[in-house]
Amino acid sequence: MAARGVLMVEPIGFGSNPETQRDNAFQLAATEGWRESVETSARAEFREFRDTLLERNVEVVTFAAQREGSPDATFPNNWFSTHRDGRVVVYPLKAENRRRERRPEIVAYLNDRYDEVIDLSAAEERGQFLEGTGSLVIDDRERVVYASESSRTHSDLVHEWCRLFDVTPVLFTSHDREGRVVYHTNVVLSLGSDFAVVCLEAVEPSSRDDVHARLEQSGREVIDITIDQMHEFCGNVLELENASGDRLLVGSSRAARAFTDEQRSAIQKSAYFVSVSLDTIEKHGGGSARCMLAELN
Predict the structure, then answer these.
(1) Parallel, antiparallel, or unpaired for β 238-241 and 221-224?
(2) Which of 30-34, 119-123, 127-131, 162-166 has the lowest mean pLDDT?
(3) Residue 81, SS3?
(4) H helix runs in the chain, sequence order
(5) What is the pLDDT of residue 38?
(6) What does 123-180 look like in DSSP terms, one character per residue?
(7) Rounded CA gap, 230 and 259, in Å?
(8) What distance in Å separates the CA atoms of residue 66 and residue 113, rounded to the nearest whole number?
(9) What is the CATH number of the domain that holds 159?
(10) FRET label pair with 95: which of 21, 130, 269, 276, CA 20 to 30 Å apart?
């Protein structure tokens, strides 16, 4: 079942983050003098996104980012995840300046709503990272977790997470069109109730057949996107369910334009496609719609 609620963080102090740009090929380098206009544009995109979800009867809980020192705070799904068994997991982040995003007031909100908080962030001290549902694409129905290994997704922590939740890991590595390791799993793969959007071309050949077979075994229609479509954030989409029980696939306008008519038809057999313009956030933050949504399960 898709989440009916999300937590979003308004991009105050937003801008290209030099600490994350090192291994995020989707992120544009910072340019002198752009910060004020970039932040203004990013906040407008965020508010349109939030309002669009609210208009479609999705619960949205909003926090404002701290003004300084948290340029990526609008991507909260990287530092926590919530689960239907009442648990919350807090994650270790690779970039030091991103660790400021784990704010007491948000943790307090989660503590009030959920039964238990599991904090894995101490793994940062030994140089191991696992960036939430950026690193983990979770299939609750099939009890499987997909994880594309990278400097932000350590295999030991994937296995530890899977032991905690008694699920099976499917580990692989992905590369972009320049041959660089893809930083997060959730730009390669997204799971809907009846379909899976995946860039099999990006998955290393030794794992490609296994990933494809696992997705097909789940009963989902596999929508195989190209590497060029992956770079347009077609894989960085998220299925939600609104208060009326309607399924929505949420993505950016950039992603929506890049899907083929055939792919869009396959999605719309089971979910309404909802898209908003996130050009500034995508260019300067290196993440898209899915990254901005931390599910409240």
Answers:
(1) unpaired
(2) 30-34
(3) strand
(4) 18-21, 35-55, 104-113, 132-135, 155-165, 205-217, 227-231, 253-258, 261-268, 279-285
(5) 85
(6) GGGGT--B-HHHHEEEETTTTEEEEE-BTTB-HHHHHHHHHHHT-EEEEE-BB-TTSP
(7) 10
(8) 22
(9) 3.75.10.10
(10) 276
Question: Would you state the structure tokens that stand for residue 74, as one six-digit string?
Answer: 């609008």
Q: What is the pLDDT of residues 208-218, one digit of tens each?
A: 999 999 999 99
CA-CA-CA-CA torsion sign (156, 162, 167, 173): negative
Percent of the chain with pLDDT over 70: 92
Instruction: Specify whether the CB–CB gap between 186 and 199 falls below 8 A.
Output: no
Domain count, the chain: 1
pLDDT (tens digit per residue) in 52-77: 999 999 999 999 887 677 789 999 99
Task: Give phi and psi for 120, each to the nearest 5.
Answer: -100, 5
Q: What is the Cα Rg of the chain in Å?
A: 17
Task: HSE, CB side, 13 Å, CA atoms: give it for residue 155.
Answer: 5
Which residues are registered as beta bridge partners of 137? 146
pTM above 0.85, yes or no: yes
Instruction: Indicate the SS3 state at residue 62.
Output: strand
